[in-house]
Structure formats: structure tokens, C-alpha cells
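User: Let's play a game. I give you a shape written as C-alpha cells, and you guess the letters that built it. Ready? Here's round one.
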């Protein structure tokens, strides 16, 4: 473990979980957030040249951390960022929980990002091979119950690039669409490309048609959501048929149920789409069943 500049004053697991962590990981050290200084020449800042990962922990236990770590490593490989950082990244996730009082109880997430590092601005990767900048923090996140009554969603054209399978920090297209959702009084924008609904700006998208659960198949056009994967597995274990085929815009109008999934969003029903109620306008039976199956799968 790299020595910590705040080792003398960690926030211990008996400290009540704070909304925003005090101890963060930066440049190979655990430091107070106020001590972090990111260079203006960081390629994450100048070019959005980096990747990130988010994992959730319940009462100190991460959900599917191995899958998050696999996706993180894959993002690094696909983005051609050298992921050989000072500490094993799994350790950073666990340390941040523990040092911020989330080690034993409550719901918390750890966000970790890696950029290609600090170098004079060029489009091509710097020849100097700078050390990647690694920044991570822990924070609590809202209870699943908060959104269980369902949320509104809008549809928007998917104007993102075509490597949506890499969890890159360049999220401006996602931010713009989500802002439009917020301005429309909705929670999420469902992104439409080539006439089909792919995913949300920060969530995976599912619909229920009859007794079949549908979602887009994995491809370069969606993020391989870990929650999506856990929900599909839980559904199939319970005998629910899942078909990996996206809904067309036409099918969206008649779908029986819709929901979104994500590490911190969990499983949330969509009860209105573009201002119109989805069927009865309240969470459907299949969605409620899957919410419970997901809870059981992660044991909360
Ligand atoms: C575009 C996009 N799709 C889906 C997801 C859900 O992925 P996960 O379940 O791994 O959190 C996210 C999460 O950030 C996302 O950004």
C-alpha cells in the first residue's frame, strides 16, 4: 500500500458516513480532497481523455466488484491507457470505503477515473508516456425506495460516438441529453439510434412486452452495464424470458412496462415516456418482480 499523507487522520469506520468523502485517492496517495490539485495540462481536463468506473457497496460489501474491475481493465485496454498504477485498483475501492466510514453500514459508491496523464496538449498520445492520473472518491447514494414509484423519461437522438462500450469520461452528449430530460421534468433520456432505443444517458434500458423482457444486445453502441447483466441473470434464474433485441420507436409506444438499471440507480420503473403514461402510468408487475429479484441478488 502506498503511504498515505492522511494516514494519521483517517475517517474511521465508526465515523457516520458523510455525503461526500473527505479522504480521496489521488496520484497514488490517500489525501484530503482539499489537497488534490489537478494540472490544467491533464488530458482528462483538456481532452476528456480518460475512463472511469463506479461500484456500489451495501454495508461495506461491494456488489460484483470483480465485474467492475474487469470492465475497468477493459476500458483501459480499449482506450490504450497504461493501467499499471501504484496500488491494485481493487484495494483503492475498499480503502476509500473504509477510510470514509462506509466500511460497515450504509449504501456507498466509489468513483474512480484514470486519465492519460499530464502532457502538453496534442491529439496523439504523448510520446513522453506520462503517468496516468488516477482519482477516486467515495460517497453515499440515495435509497432505492426513493425512485421506486417510477420516474419520467424522454427520448432523444443518440448523438454519442460509436464506442459507447468503453466507459469514457467524455460524457458531454450524455450530459446534454440528461439535462434535456431534467428540463422536461423527467429523470432520464432514452437514446435512440437508427430507430431503436439503446440505453439511457447513465442507465441501461429495458422494456416488457407481454411476458418477455427486452433490452438491447451488447455491442459498441451501449455500455455493458453490470446491473443490466445482474438483472438479466436474476430474471433468467427465475424463469423469466429475456430477449436481447432493442425496442423500435414504434414498439416503445405500446410496450407494457419500461425500466432502467444502473449501479447507483439500481432498478427504477419508467412510468411516463415523452409525457405519456406507460400503460397504467404506475410500475408494472414484472418491473416490481425484477426490482425484488435484483435486491435479492445483491442481498439488501
Ligand atoms: C451510458 C450508461 N449506460 C448504462 C449504465 C449502467 O451501467 P452499470 O449498471 O454498470 O452502472 C451507465 C452507468 O454509468 C452508463 O453511463
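Assistant: Ready! My guess for every position:
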Amino acid at each position: 500500500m502506498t503511504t498515505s499523507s492522511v494516514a494519521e487522520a483517517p475517517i474511521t469506520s465508526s465515523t457516520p458516513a458523510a455525503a461526500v468523502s473527505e479522504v480521496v485517492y489521488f496520484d497514488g496517495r490517500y489525501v484530503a480532497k482539499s489537497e488534490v490539485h489537478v494540472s490544467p495540462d491533464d488530458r482528462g481536463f483538456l481532452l476528456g481523455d480518460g475512463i472511469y468506473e463506479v461500484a456500489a457497496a451495501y454495508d461495506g460489501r461491494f456488489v460484483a466488484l470483480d465485474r467492475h474491475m474487469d470492465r475497468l481493465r477493459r476500458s483501459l485496454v480499449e482506450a490504450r491507457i497504461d493501467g499499471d498504477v501504484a496500488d491494485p485498483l481493487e484495494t483503492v475501492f475498499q480503502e476509500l470505503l473504509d477510510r470514509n466510514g462506509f466500511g460497515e453500514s450504509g449504501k456507498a459508491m466509489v468513483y474512480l477515473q484514470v486519465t492519460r496523464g499530464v502532457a502538453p496538449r496534442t491529439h496523439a498520445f504523448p510520446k513522453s508516456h506520462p503517468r496516468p492520473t488516477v482519482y477516486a472518491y467515495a460517497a453515499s447514494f440515495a435509497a432505492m425506495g426513493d425512485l421506486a414509484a417510477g420516474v419520467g423519461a424522454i427520448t432523444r437522438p443518440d448523438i454519442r460516438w460509436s464506442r459507447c462500450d468503453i466507459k469514457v469520461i467524455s460524457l458531454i452528449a450524455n450530459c446534454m441529453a440528461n439535462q434535456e430530460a431534467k428540463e422536461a421534468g423527467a429523470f432520464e433520456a432514452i437514446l435512440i439510434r437508427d430507430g431503436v432505443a439503446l440505453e439511457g444517458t447513465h442507465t441501461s434500458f429495458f422494456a416488457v412486452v407481454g411476458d418477455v423482457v427486452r433490452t438491447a444486445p451488447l455491442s459498441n453502441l451501449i455500455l455493458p452495464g453490470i446491473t443490466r447483466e445482474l438483472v438479466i441473470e436474476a430474471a433468467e434464474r427465475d424463469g423469466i424470458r429475456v430477449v436481447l433485441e432493442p425496442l423500435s420507436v414504434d414498439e416503445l409506444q405500446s410496450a407494457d412496462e419500461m425500466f432502467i438499471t444502473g449501479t447507483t440507480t439500481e432498478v427504477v420503473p419508467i412510468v411516463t415516456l415523452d409525457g405519456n403514461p406507460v400503460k397504467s402510468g404506475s410500475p408494472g408487475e414484472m418491473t416490481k418482480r425484477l426490482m425484488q429479484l435484483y435486491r435479492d441478488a445483491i442481498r439488501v
